[in-house]
């Protein structure tokens, strides 16, 4: 994920520490969202750790996710979970809130949300 001047979103928002803060804020929201808790484990520690690896890579940082887990194969990995339009929207809402919580600059928030929305749309596998 690159910025207009060929840097990465990862670098622009502050690297690993910023992505870690974003991921933490995101999972604080996920843990409280009634539309999402049915498909997430009660203990989000490992889920959040894996998501951090993915976000680092997705935003243009080191390919930590692939190094540990191989190709993301996101849709395949998410097929066991009922991902409805409502849950997609809830997930995106949590991410948008987390982007605000950790004060990611608007330009980068928009770029992140636009790209991740495409991914979230691809994850839907169940109608309401």
From TrEMBL:
Signal peptide: none annotated. One of its GO terms (molecular function) is oxygen binding. Its cofactor is heme. The keyword Transport applies. The keyword Ion transport does not apply. PANTHER family: TWO-ON-TWO HEMOGLOBIN-3. This is Globin. It comes from Oceanobacillus arenosus.
